[in-house]
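Dear Dr. V.,

Thank you for agreeing to look over these. As mentioned in my earlier message, I'm a first-year student in the group and I'm still getting used to reading structure tokens, so any feedback on how I've presented them would be very welcome. I ran two proteins. I've put each sequence directly above its structure. The first is here:
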Amino acid sequence: MKLAIFDFDGTLMKIDSLPYLLSMWTKMGYPRRRQWQIYGLIGVLYVRYKLGLNGRMTTEQMKKTALQKFTRIFTGMNEQQVDEFFDKSVALISDKMNEHVVSEIATVKNLGYHTVLLSGFYDNLLSRIAKEAGIDTVLGTKMHFKDGVIEAKKPMDIKTGTDKVNRILEAFPTADLSTSCAYADSLSDLDLLELVGTPVAVAPDANLKEIAEKRDWRII
């Protein structure tokens, strides 16, 4: 099996989904108070990160912590209510997909690749976006529920950066990675791009663009 692995934010999506969904919270009919509570939690985290007050916290660690804190916005909601939130979310962000990447998905599927959407974001949303984009498999972050109600503060197994490589190896132990391809936008996904025979940089950040140009990788 040969894989075509797609990152989510900045690659398939042209936006950073977490802050966008937070900004859309009240427009989806949810209480403003909860929105501002989460703005406060994530805002403090980001400021401390930028000022170096969180020790040697990496960008990926900061993103993981932000997602964990964002999950508190669902406190008290049951599984059906969380699903309703993600249904509404898809309606808002489906038009934010990168049309060039969507076209690429169709192309590689026709060439016999098994397509994978790989991200640290919630698999509840990823699975809905993947269905619209025609992607075969989703590897994302599972939320915790107990007796049908979300456990918003329970730590989630969020895979980002170098963790993504292990996620692929665990999910597809027999895949032919030398004939596989991967699409990503940031330096944090360098290990994933180096894992496959055909790495593709999508709207890359400055650091990844420099590497991609030096190694003559394809850039979208």
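The second protein is here, in the same arrangement:
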Amino acid sequence: MKRWYSRFVKLIFIVTRPLSALVLHNSRRVRTIVTAENSVLLVRSSFGHQLWSFPGGGIEKNEEPVHAAARELKEEADLQLEEKQLKYSGEARIPSGKKYPMINMVFYTAPLPKIEQIQVTRPLEILEVKWFKLNELPSERSKSVDIGLQMLQNHSL
């Protein structure tokens, strides 16, 4: 059932790609890099490219990016963090697809002392949520993962 649903949503994404590209172009979105015990939290969304990515999403009108990051963590992985636990890491302009649309991504980091229990709370939106060792990341990951990890590394120096 999950595989069928994944393929169905991917087909819808391909068909509506021109419209979604117009909506997403120059949008501002958030991603949160949650780390614990040399691992990082990744989600695989049913929408879009279905690659592993950091939890995150759109910033609602009049919403602060840090609030959006905390909200998306709760919605996607059932991980409740306070905004003060999220540290601003930077922003990047990332192409979604080959070059278009361009998305303005705001990154936050949340280092945790231990791996927290997580679960999919929105099964229609999120296919999987999982902790990965930093040296065992999936090859099927979005560009934003590599960009975010580079930011994380630069902040650690």
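From my reading of the second output: The radius of gyration is 15 Å. Residues 76 and 89 are 20 Å apart (CA to CA). Does that match how you would interpret it?

Kind regards,
E.
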